[in-house]
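REQUEST
  id: r-88c1
  op: predict_structure
  target: Carboxy-S-adenosyl-L-methionine synthase
  payload:
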Amino acid sequence: MSDASYRDAIFSTPLDRLARFSFDEQVVACFPDMIRRSVPGYGQILGMLGLIAGRHLRHGAHVYDLGCSLGAASLALAGQLPPEAFRLTAVDLSPAMVARARETLSAECPEHAVEVIEGDIRTLDYQPCGMVILNFTLQFLPPEDRETLLARLYNALEPGGVLVLSEKVIDPDERDNAWRVERYHDFKRANGYSELEISQKRTALENVLVPDTLEAHHARLARAGFPRSLTWFQYLNFASLIAFKEA
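RESPONSE
  id: r-88c1
  status: 200
  body:
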């Protein structure tokens, strides 16, 4: 969406009262631009999903795209794998996101078996699956709910299945973390965000997006049942992990 009307300008003017960030209609309208200019490495992560699926996904297996937003991860898989390779369930809690994702996926990949549902991923009735994608989703759940969800996903995965977990992360070393945050703000400035936008967005996300360290993520995955996980991608304070269920 390159049209100017879809440019992310939500925090471009001073707001008397900053509301908590939410995935409402206003965010949906500019979400592709927001992600492109706010998440370093997002395109590279999407581009690898089909390659990871091609290596690890059993032919015809079920895939979950949890916290699917506008369906970018689902689209990435459909663009790289034939319709018979998998069937997919995309889930999001935001009605606005779900409506747009349904429209987009039905138009862009009509031959693929893709279902988009509105629901809470913490209470979903999971069916056996070969791959789960959590692309910048876990960070928006209350920290106390994260391990329980991962344990449920581990139980739903077939032997040999994989979970791809992409998150904003923090560094346990204060000085290193400050450097990454400063360079991330440089990244946003280079992509056209003003100091006001950076500041107001950061305030709106406080206590909404709660990041973990990579060490905490790997430890949680192990407690959830995954015998092996690794960080396969990192760009500043954004990273993607893969966790494996033994065959």
